[in-house]
């Protein structure tokens, strides 16, 4: 590395040649993971530029997405040391301008932060009377603030015409000033209103247009899954039952052509009987085709629960929701998220790293639940469950004491993962 922090580009890298024999038996995605990990491992002492890997392994990086992952890995490593690199990288890798610009958009979005819905945590002044005026007083009467999120305030209210309690989500003024985000907010109502399922929070009506949109939905009184995760007071059987029912609801949404795209504990509510319900379809996308509101390159969701393809800003599918379900299951089982750190660091780990579970945590979890979780969280969509329903069925098999359909990671894949995490040692074998 030069004095100004730039990685010096070398004409040849003979030390990389030794890697060829070590990765030749691996599958494509495992080769890419090993080479990216090698780049990271060398960074602190003798950094190797991405160009050296592109030149030495042309057959691996003929896949443009793999090449961009490698290039972006170098960018993230150097940016963590405070370097402004976008212009340099666009010049060095001009043939990947489109893909890199998309990655930089993701990077900028991460830098601006993500907000989760937080119960009873005030972020800016709110006025009950002012919000009441926004929705009018003939039909609904706001009673109290339930919580505040990045995009909306949620109130407990009374439906005066039907005599029932409801929840009303009212967009923040800052959101309503942003036309695209206001449209996305209203789309939550449109998406969820299509879904009639006991495991999905019902949407009753909407109003306010694009000036200050609001949504009236079912009032769910039993708290969130986030509350339960934080208290850690539950059994493995309860975990399997909850996630199985959530998976049933998500599968119903998928069958209806809707992908949630932001499954996380804060978006799972519990009713008075202790049954889970999926909420917040504000980031939902149509499975058949992506709306202009969620075109490729947009980063939507919460980093810790994103699938690798979602974290890259690529288009997503029902399989992305299955990955997020796997992360929710992981957190319930192991009492921690699989990847931790700053949003940017989490994104990089989601894309490139395999989760590492401490042995003492692993011993406490039934093997079949470990296997179900690993299957749902596979990096490659093709290795995950084929549907949320398949995952739900495996969880029910576990509850019934029957063998699950998912199988543990095979020996070859374990070796590949070890190579990914220990590239220097792997080269000496």
Automatic annotation (TrEMBL):
This chain's protein is named: NEK6-subfamily protein kinase
Superkingdom of source:
Eukaryota
Q: Kindly give the Gene3D superfamilies that the UniProt entry links to this protein.
A: Phosphorylase Kinase, domain 1, Transferase(Phosphotransferase) domain 1
Positions annotated to bind ATP: 169
What are the UniProt keywords, alphabetically?
ATP-binding, Kinase, Nucleotide-binding, Serine/threonine-protein kinase, Transferase
Its EC number(s): 2.7.11.34
Name the top EC class.
Answer: transferase
Task: Extract the InterPro entries matched here.
Answer: Kinase-like_dom_sf, Prot_kinase_dom, Protein_kinase_ATP_BS, Ser/Thr_kinase_AS
- Where does the record place the Protein kinase domain? 140-399
Q: What family, per the record? A: Belongs to the protein kinase superfamily.
